[in-house]
Design brief:
- The chain is mainly alpha-helical.
- It has one domain.
- The protein has five helices and two strands, in the order ββααααα.
- Strands 1-2 form a two-stranded antiparallel ribbon.
- A hairpin with a 3-residue loop joins strand 1 and strand 2.
- Helix 3 crosses helix 4.
- The chain is flat, with a radius of gyration of 19 Å.
- The relative contact order is 0.11.
């Protein structure tokens, strides 16, 4: 694939397709991806496949809820990682 409609590269569209599907792209990027998909058959086919996969996963796993203990451990660990990253020490080689 290569550079295509919407002023965006096909590889960039496919790399960001899940972000677009989850409606997590900023408005400008979403507009460019939509414009690209409207004019690029190969990306549109790939996008359709990714959309089908996401729908299948949602149908099969959408009702699963993580146990509260697991959710708490994940939140604690994310906080620890954030704190560690914020207080890293610089050591020149």
């Amino acid at each position: 694939m290569g550079f295509g409609p919407g002023g965006i590269d096909c590889d960039d569209v496919l790399k960001d397709v899940f972000t677009y599907l989850d409606d997590e792209s900023d408005a400008q990027v979403a507009r460019r991806i939509r414009q690209h998909l409207d004019g690029c058959g190969p990306c549109l086919r790939h996008f359709g496949l990714e959309q089908d996969i996401k729908s299948l996963v949602a149908r099969c796993c959408g009702g699963d809820v993580a146990p509260e203990g697991l959710r708490t451990r994940i939140r604690i660990r994310l906080t620890e990682v954030t704190v560690d990253a914020a207080h890293s020490e610089y050591r020149p080689d």
